[in-house]
Amino acid sequence: MRDELAQLMAALRDSRDFESAAAATLRRMLAAAEAAVASSRYAGRARVLRGIVHLRPGEAYRRLAALDVGAKETTDAGVGTPFFTSATAWRAVVEHRCAVSIDVNIGTVQPHAPDAPVTGDPGLAGFHSNESKQRFLGRHATHVCVLPLRTPAGMEGMISLEAECLAAMGQEFVWRDAGDVLQLFTDVAAPYLTALPQRPVATPEVDEFLPVVGRSMAELLPILRVFALQDETILVSGATGAGKSRLARWCHERSNRRGKPFETLDLVTVPEDLQMAELFGWKKGAFTGATRDAPGVVARSDGGTLFIDEIDKLSLKAQAGLLHLLESRSYRPLGEGTGEKLADVRFIIGTNADLHAQVRAGRFREDLYYRVNVLPVRMPPLQDRNDEIPLWGRYMVNRRHRERLPEGSARLAPEAEHLLVTSSWPGNLRQLDNIVRRAYTLAMVEHAGAAGDLVLQEKHVARALDYEQAPGGRPLPEALRAAAQAFVGEARRRGGPLDLDLADGFRGLVLGLAIRQVGRDEAFRLLGRESLVKNRNHHKALKRELEKVDALYKALGEDGSPFSDLLEGEEAA
């Protein structure tokens, strides 16, 4: 034992990246597991299959590395799908804070802590889902040992070891006997696995769904390729506007469901009392205004993928309905008398909230949290992806130019790109797109009739940023005065009148920004219009205000307002 530990420590000290440290760790852990099998009553009737390092600090996956018995190197996450991630395994080690053994066939979880009870009932109850159980069995894994990857900072991930032994079904396998050695190897390796950098990845291919990939995203894509090919739920967390919906579409296009429907449900745009109807659809007469049968978003995405964004905005009643859908893969449209419809849908969930904190506050069901937190990834904000900003800027300029003028080209001057990189982007890609769109319009005004390429200069970007400038620490009266000056300045630059009635769009801008931050109903309450919500008149009011915003942006030569998606949602409702 002392020799094996010394060899592992020497190999870890020589490791230069996460992958080599993972290979060194798993090689010795698998050897220890094989030795335990050879000295047990299952010798000759069991085989150790593989080990996987799951690095997931802060409730989000960062890296994966798998090593099959006999292999020399860990498997590249970008090649094939040898990995399998299990919500059952993660929830068990987090709950018990120790190693656990899973008997896959009968669905039980046994903590290695002294006198800890076996959890789960025969068949399934210990598992997050039947799909989770079947995927283990499809890999010939009948017994799994899961060990917590711990550092002084807390739980940083886990290491899972898989074995096949039908003879041990319902019986104690070797994991508990070998547990102390396996946990010692895990604890020794933990500082290296969590601190070493990832091996440099090849420059990923970009496409229409993810046209820009910087360093941070390049490190995340190998994991996402693995997740995309599974049918389990992906939870994408990240700031509003970071690009979660684009990433969800990218995963759909790399899944076995590509070519099938991809539907998006943004819960910010759906009132609480309509969430169940929008999810599951309704039959004629199910409620006032239901004059015809209507399929819900679940039915429309049948066979494909459903991306539900802002899941924290889901009401507790609708949470119960979604939980039933995820558990049983069936649902009942509103007004349907008897029977349920089967749902062949893969779910991707988006949120900018801390769902675990929402659970503690009683605003999000704990059982639903564990149903959606199966394959969690965190999308870095644009502020942490500075290398992507000029690339996104070029992409947005070229896309807008092709839409308006298929011939010719447009580009950002180097000084303009530098200004974009050094600016603050709390609104992420959505805000960046607004700035580029505005700067493009300003450049077009100056370029009208001129020959040569369209070049967005630093002055165009600076002026576009002035329009977007957040008040920061300025008093509200001062910020309002600055907005008024910008309105008058625009009228003077145009050389013609800018209708004062367009200033009414400011109310809609305030309301739209509030909805982005706190949700529709809460925004009305925040801005002193709670009575409209109580009287069910807030939909008309919102549509009216958003139309004013749209009119303002069109008058300024913009393609649409930053809240065009909210307006479309109101018009559809």
Automatic annotation (TrEMBL):
Keyword set, alphabetical order: ATP-binding, DNA-binding, Nucleotide-binding, Transcription, Transcription regulation
Q: Which residues cross the membrane?
A: none
Gene Ontology BP annotations: regulation of DNA-templated transcription
Q: Does the keyword Calcium apply?
A: no
Domain Sigma-54 factor interaction: from-to ranges: 210-441
* Pfam families according to UniProt: AAA_lid_14, Sigma54_activat
What is the protein name given in its UniProt record? Sigma-54-dependent Fis family transcriptional regulator
Q: What is the lineage of its organism?
A: Bacteria, Pseudomonadati, Myxococcota, Myxococcia, Myxococcales
